[in-house]
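Long-time lurker, first post.

We've been arguing in lab meeting about whether magnesium ion would sit comfortably in this protein at all. Half the group thinks yes, half thinks no, and nobody has a model to point at. So I'm putting the question to the forum: if I give you the sequence and the SMILES, can you give me back a predicted structure of the complex? Inputs are below. Any interpretation is welcome too.
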Amino acid sequence: MADKLNLKTKSVSGPTAAILLLVALAIPPFLSAINLNYGILICCFVLLYVVAVSGLDVVFGYSGQISLGHAAYFAIGAYGSIMLHKYFGVTIVFSMLIASAVATIIGIVIAYPASRLRFHFLSLSTIAFGEIVYQLVLQSPSAVTGNSLGIFTEPISFFGFKLDTYTRFYYYGLAVMVISLILKNNLINSKTGRALIAIRENAHAADGAGINVTRHKVIAFAVSTFYCAYAGAMYAHLVRFISPDTFMFRQSVLFLTMLLFGGTGSLLGPVIGAFSVTLLNEALRVAEKYQMFIYGTLMLLVIIALPGGIYGSLKRLLNRFKRKEAR
Amino acid sequence: MLLSIEGVTVKFDSLIAVNNVSVNIAKGKITGLIGPNGAGKTTLVNAISGVYAPNAGKVVFDGEDITGRRGYQISKAGLARTYQVINLFEHMTVLENVLVGMHTRLKSSLTAAFFKTRAERAEEEAAREKAFELLRFVRLQDRFDNEAGSLSYGDQRRLEIIRGLASDPKMVLLDEPAAGMNPVEKDDLDAMLREIINRGVTVLMIEHDMKLMMGVADHVFVLNYGSKLAEGTPAEIQRNPDVITAYLGDD
Ligand SMILES: Nc1ncnc2c1ncn2[C@@H]1O[C@H](COP(=O)(O)OP(=O)(O)OP(=O)(O)O)[C@@H](O)[C@H]1O
Ligand SMILES: [Mg+2]
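Top reply:
Settle the argument with this. Predicted structure of the protein with magnesium ion, as tokens:
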């Protein structure tokens, strides 16, 4: 019996994780060696996007609610952390956490009434909220957010140790990403994670099984807003300058594209999605005008040709291969 | 009385699907609910289990007024159910379906889940053990890792029953558990119902299969056009002229 209870969990196996981690650790020295410092910055973006997209996955991939406004929480994390530091002198490490907590509370306040509604009111409310935050940032009273000019800030500093190089930030970002993935994995492999999947599969039956659907939708939303806001704060202190342009509707679409492209409802999907879409973005920098066009095409491609994203399709392929082998 | 239904009425616009129905359901017994198609049986069960709030009347479960509460609250109070149309989590595994059924019994907090505390792991492990025990009860233990949707019709029905039992309920409401089962599976269900009673769980069952119903039920009540037509022991119901007319008139 005991071995039967040792069930497949939907996480990554130990050896795979170890190899991925080793590769990740080797990236900055490798890129410096070939004089591609800019590449390390891109990888820093990938890391923080993985955090944001993993958060979005909890709400979209697991509990099945579409949000098109998560850039708003990314923005609250970014602006919140900068403003807490600038106007209240809060140390940056803490300002990031406080801003993320505030974003989470706002997320709960918004998600609670919306989750009780039927149909896609939650998605609609997320779009509306995204627009509100954008406008607030753009036209803040006495320009506390820097309005359209944007606002500058400093790098993260751990008791005087400044994360002021791309490599330093990279290792910090890697640690944050790994912790985020572990916490997400733990959540998914708990009764709460099962409840979220049950809601996605069949909300009516979930209710009948004693699951408070509203409460769990709000939990999923809250987790995702914390992840997105923290990623936003990371972004702010990496780039050290933000402006409303960074947080337009387009940013929400970017997150969703990464998630769909990489694969929803999985641990590695957001990693693959953030990585591939960021690289693609960089490769197509010359065609910035066509960014939304490209995201749209990618989304269609995934929906039609790659259901489950890259990760889901790879897994299906692997399973087919394994089954053949077993025969 | 474990469950008292007092003057419950459910309306859909102008249609009165359940009309002022009162029934008492005794603890530790199998109570049957029969009636022609469209009589309002499922609607009554939906009104008890929180899918709809009754338009009038009261539902008291184990001394607690549960009228108009939400489905999950009623499930938490110890009243589980199955559905006329199979309502499993199709793409989750057989084991996961049972574990979801156990949701209300599991006490770990959200924080414990995030940090996979020792207590949370132990609780999950115990939950799996318990789920396997239930799966063995219906001989589905070897299918634990299959998608629930891949099971045969009869197996899906049985899985739904143990998903309901997984919450350790005081009572289960079964809406046509034998629908789509072959004769062998029906005999099996008969034995299973008796075992459920032995475990101390009260049963209210809607069923069109009269052989099964009359064999296992301790008490039967009949709905017709939303109203209670009769109630009594299976033998009394079988020779009740009103019931006979209702069924003959319907067919
Ligand atoms: N959600 C609904 N909206 C409108 N009318 C409904 C709804 N649910 C059921 N009804 C109607 O209420 C009446 C009772 O239906 P119900 O499903 O409770 O019957 P039943 O006794 O369970 O029948 P069966 O034996 O066929 O399952 C029927 O006339 C049905 O059409
Ligand atoms: Mg019915």
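For your lab meeting: The mean pLDDT of chain B is 94. The interface with chain A takes residues 49-51, 70-72, 75-76, 80-81, 83, 87-92, 95-96, 99-104, 106, 108, 110, 112-116, 120, 124-125, 127-129, 132, 144-145, 163, 167 of chain B (CB under 8 Å). Whichever side wins, do check it experimentally.
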